Amino acid sequence: MAIPDTEVERQIQQMIQFIDHEADEKECEILAKADEEFNIEKGRLVEQEKQKIRAFYEKKEKNAELQKKIQLSNLQNQARLKLLKQREDHLDEVVVNTTEKLRSMTSDIGKYQSMLQGLITQGLCQLLEPNVSYGADRKICSSSRKCWIKH
Known about the structure:
- By secondary structure, the chain is an all-alpha fold.
- The chain has helices spanning 5-105, 109-127, 141-150.
- The termini are far apart.
- The mean pLDDT is 88.
């Protein structure tokens, strides 16, 4: 019972077609699985890079806020220092003016004694002590005694 060659050839062709069909199906399955894995990996990598970019810009934003706070603090400190410098300059000017006025007042004995009397009175009022001892420079000793005696 020999099978004719044409029949054998047809069966071989049928088996080749079946194997080709199975190979094509397997190829499609492999390609679909590869596409799916590729898309999953691509999504994971994209999300990972998005997270890196978010973290980078959050860090930049925090640094910008920190720099802004530092700059504001520096400006406030500069303003404080400027104010303190102006206050010091003003006080220096007041001291110079007061010193000049005091020097010019010593030439007018009446005004000088009146000023000494006021200063002594002010000092005694602030002390609120029943007994006070007092000392003065020799230059102003006579003027201060006159003021002291009045009290």
